[in-house]
Amino acid sequence: METWLVGYLALGAITGFFAGLLGIGGGGIMVPVLVVLLGAQGFGSEHLVHFALGTSMAAIVPTAIASTLAHNRRSAVHWQAVYQLTPGVLLGTFAATFIAAYLPAKPLALFFAVFMTAIAAYMIWGRAPRPERQLPSVSGMFGVGAGIGGVSALVAIGGGSLTVPFMIWCNQSPTRAIATSAALGIPIAAAGALGYVVNGWTQAEGPMTLGYVVWPAVLAMASMSFLTAPLGARLAHHLPVKRLKQVFALMMVGLAVKMVHGFW
Known about the structure:
The chain is an all-alpha fold. It has one domain (3-263). The protein is 76% helix and 2% strand. The protein is built from 10 helices and 2 strands; from the N terminus they run ααααααααββαα. The chain has helices at residues 3-22, 27-40, 48-72, 79-100, 105-125, 138-155, 160-169, 174-199, 215-236, 241-263; strands at residues 209-210, 213-214. A hairpin with a 2-residue loop joins β1 and β2 (213-214). α2 (27-40) runs antiparallel to α3 (48-72), α3 runs parallel beside α9 (215-236) and α4 (79-100) runs parallel beside α8. The radius of gyration is 17 Å and the shape is globular. The protein starts with a helix and ends with a helix. The chain crosses the membrane at residues 6-39, 51-70, 82-103, 108-125, 145-170, 177-198, 210-232. It is a multi-pass membrane protein. Belongs to the 4-toluene sulfonate uptake permease (TSUP) (TC 2.A.102) family. This is Probable membrane transporter protein.
């Protein structure tokens, strides 16, 4: 078996578990590792990050589905919030892929690292929300969804790094926030993957790619994430809130360091 295939299978298993545990699509884990794996396969440095972003987005779709199904079996998904956020998410995600396609690799990597570090700091030191705060109106949810989708497309995440803190800020329980984030990851990833296919149409590198999406990598990662996402979801419903936040924050910092180290 090819070494790169083993790497994709292992990456899929890990991201699937954390997708279920933390409500993330797994892009935060996939992107830095995909940069290394795709680079080792001979992908050019000029569009290496774009291929990592597009491939990650496509792989998040099945990962998010597996995670959502596992959480929904425990009736933890806030479906009304998902429905209200989705229109803005679709618009923001697809539009942002056009921005990301024209940005050089290093600024994208730096944006990724700063974003992850900021989220980690919020999860550790952020103040508790006011007790009276609730989810915003329909128009407000559209705007929040557009923001979540836009940032998600730029860093190829399923939106969990924004959706989970937002839901907790609106006084939703961490497990409900994680479950809802997993469900929202489906439209984010679908719109993002489509955008990276369209924007990378002329950059395809051989029969293994469609736009900025490397399909063998997507299929390998998805095959494993479908198995491990339910395991992470099960654990999320048993861990204490404080421990969940600590795991989330530490993962974000580690990924930020890895991404910066790969380009500087």
